[in-house]
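The data are passed on as follows:
___
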Amino acid sequence: MDSISVLHIDLFQSGKNASDFYFNRMKEHLVLGHHHIERPHRHDFYATILFTNGNGTHEIDFQKYEVSPGSLFFMSPGQVHSWELSNDIDGYIFFCSQEFYEMHYVNQKLRNFPFFGSVNFPRKLQLNDDELTKNINLFQELEKEYKIQDVMKEGLILSLMSQIFIRSTRQFSKELNISESSASFSYFKHYQDFESLVEEHFTKEKSIAFYADLMNISSKHLNRITQTVVQKTATEVITERVVLEAKRMLMYLDESLVEIAFRLGYEEYSYFVRVFRKISGMTPTQFIKKYKA
C-alpha cells in the first residue's frame, strides 16, 4: 500500500474537460491543489515550474534545492517532492503527460532532455535576468494558449514547451561545457544510453561489465564517460539509482526491509544496509524514522 499519494493531472482541472496538459500561475495552483500538495507526493506526469517571486525550499527525491526568483525546476513521473514556500511566492507551472508530448514528437522523447531523463542531473536551473525574462515570455505565451480555443492550439503549446526545454538543455550544456562539436557531447550521448540501460536493468544487474558489454565498450571507457559527464564512477551511478529506488519503496510500500532488499536484487540484507548507508549516510531504519515520522 502506498504511503505517498500519486497525483494525476485531472485533479488540478476542476470544472474543465480532462486534458493531458495543465497550466497555472503558482499562486492559483497552490490554492487549487492545497489538499493534494501540502504533503510529500509524486506525479504520473512531467512537471515544469518557474518561480518569479518569493523564496523557500523544494525537495525532490530527498534532495533539497533553494527557491528564489529565477529558479526553474523539472520533475519526472514517480519522483517524490514537497516544498516550503513563502507567502509571496509566485511563478508559473505546467504539467504534461508523456503521451501528449511524444505522440506529436515521435523522434524526440522527453527522457532525452537531461533534466527529465537522468537521475544524476540537477532538477533545477537558476536563471540570470536575461534568461528569466525570455522564459517568462514563453510561459506567458503558454498561459495564453492554454486559456483560449483556437486552431492548432496543441501544436503551439507543444512548440512553446519545446522551446523552454531546448533553452534549458542549452543552459545545462553551458554549465557542463558541452557542445555538439565537442568530444564531451559524444560522452554525454553515451551517458544517456548508459542511464537508460541502468533504468531498465538496475534491480538485477549491478556490474559495470554488464552495461559495458551492452554498449560495446570497455568497462574502463564506461568509467571514463561517467567521470567526464557526472564526475562519478559507473558503479556509483548504478548504486545511487538502486538506493534512490530503495528510498522510494521505503516511503511508498508497506513491505519489510528484507523484502525491499530482495526486490532490489540483494539476497543478503546486511549487505544492502551497508550499500544504503554508504550512499545516503544513514541506515534504512534511520531513513524511515526521518521521513515517515
Summary: The mean pLDDT is 86. The domain at 183-291 is CATH 1.10.10.60 (Arc Repressor Mutant, subunit A). The first helix runs from residue 26 to 32.
